[in-house]
Design goal:
Layout lengths: L9 H25 L2 H8 L3 H7 L3 H21 L7 H18 L1 H12 L6 H24 L8 H17 L1 H8 L4 H17 L2
């Protein structure tokens, strides 16, 4: 049994959680290249040697965060069911993605930064987990189009549009809030996106 296989004590788990929470702040603000182990350790309230006891490198922390994020990231797409009303299923997906941007903005920016850098630590997961799921849901959307249950749309570009229009509110949060002032961006976004995609999808 290696050290990593041994059950963690409460203190060890608390420190790991603190490191990952701090790293999420640092990576989402600075990107992988701009983040440093020193920044993460300081944010976590730990010494650098203590942090390196749990994670041997900045990349190891980043990989652990991305691995945990993928399940969260794919969950809203998995929830699209072939047994529901097609328009309602897709509008529900829009809503879930917008809620994710509202509730998990740091995670959204972490994911966006990784993709913008060419996904060096996520490319394998994108091919093995994301693409098969997207292909499955795109085929379902195409079947709804062919059955006349939704208006003709390109399944993949529909999903890309949903991603871009919902994740914008997390990835460009500062710009959105600067322009809107005191207005809650997510209240207006919910109404706008539901109306826009509803008109697009209804046959």
């Amino acid at each position: 049994m290696t050290a990593s296989d041994k059950p963690r004590t409460r203190i060890q788990q608390r420190n790991i959680n603190a490191i990952q929470e701090a790293a999420l702040d640092v990576f989402s603000a600075n990107g992988f290249r701009g983040a440093t182990v020193d920044q993460i350790a300081a944010s976590a309230g730990l010494s650098k040697p203590n942090l390196l006891y749990y994670f041997p490198s900045k990349e190891a922390i980043h990989v652990a965060l991305l691995a945990a994020l993928m399940d969260t990231w794919l969950a809203p797409l998995r929830e699209i069911k072939d047994t529901g009303d097609p328009v309602s299923e897709l509008l529900g997906y829009v809503q879930r993605k917008l809620e994710m941007s509202r509730d998990l903005p740091r995670e959204s920016r972490l994911f966006a930064n990784e993709i913008l850098q060419g996904a060096p630590r996520l490319s394998g997961t994108l091919g093995s987990e994301l693409k098969p799921l997207v292909d499955e849901k795109a085929a379902l959307i195409q079947s709804w189009v062919e059955a006349g249950k939704i208006a003709p749309v390109h399944p993949y570009h529909l999903l890309f549009s949903i991603w871009s229009l919902t994740q914008h509110y997390a990835d460009f949060d500062v710009q959105v809030r600067m322009i809107l002032g005191d207005e809650d961006p997510f209240e207006g976004a919910q109404n706008h996106l539901q109306d826009m995609f509803g008109k697009m999808l209804r046959p």
